[in-house]
Amino acid sequence: MIKEVDGEASVFGADITVEADCQAIVETCVARYGRVDILHNNVGIAAGDADTVDVTEANWELLMDINLKGMFLTIKHVLPVMRAQGAGVIINISSTASLCTRPTMLAYKTSKAAINAMTQNLAIENAEYGVRVNAILPGLMDTPMAIERRVAEQGVSREVIRQERDEDVPLCQKMGTGWDVAAAAAFLASDDARYITGVLLPVDGGLSARVG
């Protein structure tokens, strides 16, 4: 998509839970482009959560490693670059699940709530360097991760899952898409948001307002 609009894109295969890989991501970006202006942390999973007494230690660690530890590691290695530049933007993808309580979502909710806390702490810690840190909290989204997992777990059609999720959204009773999150990220990364840091931005069609 980037190349279709005459942009330049690179791909780097890495394991987000391995610190050496996260360091290599940053080093490769600096080697190719000379700087890092934006870090968009979008890696995350939700599979395997269960009732608290049924959550395995391995699954808890997997969710925390991918959703939280990986984000911390990329930030750890990009911050020296951004601080030296005197500018940079970090955008972390959290979830409105961090704000609400649902059965069988303990590990996922905990990982996302920790992202919120980390985001706000980083925003204050790095403000003096001109580095902005914000988080986006997507609500009910029409994405493969959200839909396919529920189809497999509940044994019903995609249409049934989509209808149920659509009906839960206050705004036009329609789930959002990845493009809605992308638009929010593009804004937060832009100079239009130059005075915004430490914000947890729901992109959820009003879902979190109803929770509040």
Automatic annotation (TrEMBL):
**Source species taxonomy:** Eukaryota, Metazoa, Porifera, Demospongiae, Heteroscleromorpha
Which superkingdom, per the lineage? Answer: Eukaryota
Family matches, as Pfam families: adh_short_C2
Asked if Oxidoreductase is a keyword of the record, the answer is yes
- GO molecular function terms noted in the UniProt entry: oxidoreductase activity
Q: What keywords are annotated for this sequence in UniProt?
A: Oxidoreductase
Q: What protein am I looking at?
A: Levodione reductase
Give the protein family: Belongs to the short-chain dehydrogenases/reductases (SDR) family.
Gene3D superfamilies, sorted: NAD(P)-binding Rossmann-like Domain
Can you name the source organism? Geodia barretti (Barrett's horny sponge)
